[in-house]
Each structure stands twice: as C-alpha cells, then as structure tokens.
Amino acid sequence: MKVVKFGSSAVATAEKIKVSAQIAAAHKGENNIVVVSSISGTTDCLIEIADYLYKKNPDGAKELINNLERNYLNLANELFSDKQQTANIEKEISGRFDEIRKLSQDIFTLFEEKRIVAQGELLLSYLFTEYLKVMGLNVKSIPALNFMRIDKNEEPDVVYIKKNLESQLEIAGKADLFITEGFICRNAYNEIDNLKKGGSDYTASLIGAALHADEIQIWSDKNAISRIDNSIVKDARPVEKLNFDEAAELAYFSAKTLHPVCLTPAKLENVPVKLLNINQAEDAGTLISTAYAPNHVEVVAAKDGITSIRIKSSRMLFAHGFLRRVFEVFEQYKTSIDMITTSEVGVAVTIDNEKNLEDILDDLKKFGTVTTNRDMTIICVVGDLTDQKANMQSQVISAIDVPITMISYGASGNNISFLINKADKEKVLVALNQKFFTK
Question: What is the pLDDT of residue 234?
C-alpha cells in the first residue's frame, strides 16, 4: 500500500484539487491512504483570525471569517455541478464556519486557537472526499483526530498512532481510498493540537512508517529537485534518487526537500519517499530512500542572504566555556546558526536571519573583536563524500576559483559547505555543474 499526500500548493485552487483528485483516483483499490493539507493560504488566514481574537477584536476576526467562508462557498460551486449536492455541501461549509464564530464569543486561549487552525485541514478533507465520491469512488474517511497523537514532550506517540490507525482502518472497512488530514492531531490531554513544522509531510511519514507502506508520495505543484539551480544552469537535470541523509542536508536550502524531522519515521522503517509534481504527473520525480551512490555528488544547492560573524579573542585560547557563552547569545535572540568554524583565537558563524543582528553584535563585543560580512551566499555540495581514495573533497575545492570566506566539512560525510560573495555565485555554480554533472 501507499500513502499519497497532497500539499497546500497541490490543492490551492479548484482546478488543482481536480487534478490531485484524478491522481488520487489512479491509486484506488490498493488500500492506499490519501493525506491532505489545507488549501494554500487558509492556515495563515486562520492564524490571523486567532490573532484578532487574542487582541479582543471579534469584529476584525468575523470579517476575516466571512471572507474565508465566501471563498470556500465559491470553491464548492467550482467543484460541484449538481445543484442539490452543492447546496448540501454549502450548508456543511457554513455550519463549520459557524463553529469557528462560536469560538470568538468566549474567553480565547491557545486551546481555541488550535481548534480554529485545525479547520483548514478538516474543510479540505471534507471537500476532497466529496469530490472523489462524485467521481464514483468508494471513499472512507479516517479522521486524523482519532489516531494521530503527540505525547507530553510534543513528540508523536508512535505506539498509540499505530494501534489506533489500524483500528480506524478496520472500522472503516473496505474502500477504494482512505482519506485523512495532515498536520492536525491530539495532544496528551486529548486536546486538538498540531505537528508543527512540516506537519502534513510528518503525518504522511508517520502513517507510512506505522503501516510499513511500500511508498510515501508527496505531491506539490513544483518540479522535482534539480541537481543545480536551474535558473542559472538552464539545462540542469532533475535528481532521480537521494539518500535520506543527503535529503536532510538539503532541507535548509530547498523548500522542495522535506524537513529532516518529517523524513525520520520513513527512514527508520525503510519506507521510500517520492517527491512528485501534479503538473508533471508522468515524470519519475525524486525518490528518497536508504540507497545511495558511492563517491558521487548528487546536488549542488545555494542560499543567499547570509551574514557571517567573526569573533576574535585571545581569551579563547585554552579557555573553557568560551564557545558556550558565544552560542548563548544566539540562543537568547532565537537566531539559528548555520555554519561554524573555529581557530585557536577565533570563531566564525553564519546566520540567515538579521532580525536581532544589532543586539547580537552588541552582546558579542563583550567577548572580543567582532566583524561581519553581509549579503553572502552559502554553496552546499551534497552526496557521498566519505571515501578518502576518491578524494571528493579535493575535487570540489579544485573546481572553485573564487575567494572562499568559510568552509565546513566533517560534521557529516554528505555535505561540503562554503561561504562566498554573492557576486561569485553564478560562476561557482557553473563551474561545479561542469565538474560533476556534464560528464
């Protein structure tokens, strides 16, 4: 069996919902489970509604609720042609938005916010199920809130998920397809909650792992991962296969790559994950699995908007706790560090979020001399780079003929990252493409 997940971009419009439904229908009769996200933009709107309610502005919240309800009623009219059926679906949609309105009448807490945010997935799951029924399929709903749960540490309760998912499938009986919601779950106190980052992908991975699926498919409206930036290298080829560890290294650089947390359940149970595009359904996409190609560069990625920060201090020499105090500054301002290099008297890091940069720099000056370089670019070379005989590291470096500000290698055998001036980005990508991908 397969788990087939459609992301927000794959269900963003009535036309895309129809295309995604056709793809889902092609998987009927194999006990496959379809996981749906909310429609693109819906979750952001629901979060904004909650924000108005926190600020005790129910009128502002209700205006947004009315606009969102109107959008869903229009969507129903685009999806369904039978007038009586459309009327019934419109009634159901309006009833669900009435429930959201009721949440704005009392004291508003995080509990109510999560109930509101969950409505995006529940609405799309309902519409997707009804549309598949119109197509003539025997579709059964297995509500995520009946089996998806996180524990007191906000981690998936995998034992509970497996047991209750199997129970829900048994209760549902035979079907062409089973439909469930991504992202949403219950917490250890049985309250409605969610899986946070990459939620719908995480749901698909957890389901696939629990049922030992043959494959997890993640459908979006984007092309497969390219070996190199195809806006610079026009003939860049798609990546057909990636190892789970290689995909994890790429997550920082590409929205098309799943968050490593989402991949973990599939990786642990050896369930392959395939990234696919609804607009090019016939293409093979990118398969992520435990297999790998030895001594081989798979992808070169780049990320702009990087700031490097260097702290130089003789007090660092033979000192205990110096790095801890430096990193605590970034933790205080909730700013993630991407690359790190050290010497006996200095440390350099990169960040991609300048929101609290001035405060960070001010605090770091307590430890030594601080300098910065802004608007830099990180180049990341991903593949199997571990074999010393193949000397992959030297091959990468020898292809680059521009100044390198920082270089990071050794934390894993799948990634060499280096920091360059943004102006040199195109030259470097073209050179690396020529070195590794044009043979």
Answer: 81
Compute CA 404 distance to the chain's CA centroid, rounded to the nearest angstrom. 30
> How far is residue 197 from each of residues 182, 337, 428, measured CA to CA in Å?
12, 18, 32
For 362-390, letters b (16+ CB in 10 Å) and e give ebbeebbebeebeebbbbbbbbbbeeeee
Beta-bridged to residue 33, according to DSSP, are: 3, 178
* Sheet-wide strand order for 286-289: 139-141, 177-181, 33-36, 2-6, 215-220, 273-277, 286-289, 241-243
- Exposure string over 318-354, b if 16+ CB within 10 A, otherwise e: eeeebeeebeebbeeeebeebbebeeeebbbbbbbee
Phi and psi angles of residue 327, each rounded to the nearest 5 degrees, phi first? -70, -30
Rounded distance between C-alpha atoms, residue 367 and residue 330, angstroms: 13
Region of 299 (left: φ > 0; alpha: ψ -120 to 50; beta: rest) is beta
CA 304 distance to own-chain centroid: 19
Rounded CA-CA distance 276/282 in Å is: 9
H helix or E strand, kind and range, residue 364: helix 357-364
Helix (H) or strand (E) holding 408: strand 406-409
Question: Which 8-state DSSP code applies to residue 376?
Answer: E
Give pLDDT tens digits for 63-115.
999 999 999 999 999 999 999 999 999 999 999 999 999 887 778 888 899 99
Rounded to whole angstroms, how far apart are CA atoms 438 and 237? 10
Instruction: Mention every residue, 6+ apart, whose C-beta is less than 8 A from residue 213.
Output: 1, 2, 3, 207, 271
Q: Residue 238 is encoded by which pair of tokens?
A: 């798609």
- Give me 347's structure tokens: 């440390």
- One-letter amino acid of 208: G
279, 221 Cβ separation under 8 angstroms: yes
Amino acid residing at 419: L
Give the type of residue at 257: T
Q: How far apart are the first and last CA of the chain?
A: 38
Q: Count of CB atoms within 10 A of residue 270's CB?
A: 11
Residue 107 φ then ψ, to 5°: -60, 135
> What does the pLDDT look like over 370-392, one tens digit per residue?
999 999 999 999 988 776 656 77
- Tell me: the pLDDT tens digits for 279-304? 998 988 999 999 877 788 889 999 99
Tokens of 57: 């502005």
Q: What is the four-CA torsion angle of 87, 92, 98, 100, rounded to 10 degrees?
A: -140
358 C-beta neighbours (distance < 10 Å), count: 9
